[in-house]
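Weekly structure sync, notes
Attendees: PL (lead), two postdocs, one rotation student
Agenda item 3: pending single-chain targets
PL asked that the sequence for the first pending target be pasted directly into the notes so everyone works from the same version. It is reproduced below exactly as submitted, 68 residues in total.
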Amino acid sequence: MQNGFVERFNGRFRDEFLNETLFSSLTEAREQIRAWQHDDNHHRPHSGIGNISPVEFVARKGLAMRAA
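Predicted structure, written out during the meeting:
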């Protein structure tokens, strides 16, 4: 059985980033992947967590847990 979450992430990463980007070196690839990862975690809404960014989701969960 495959992990649906991992398969979905890998497909999206491939479609949105790897298929559209050419790298001249491994260092450049690592830098661009880090930038994509930062954008994905800090700015892009994710439908699985209410169309907010993962960083915002964690911040809201932290506030909710402190209030409880």
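Discussion points:
- Residues 57 and 63 are 10 Å apart (CA to CA).
- The helical segments are 4-16, 26-42, 54-67.
Action: rotation student to compare against the earlier draft before next sync.
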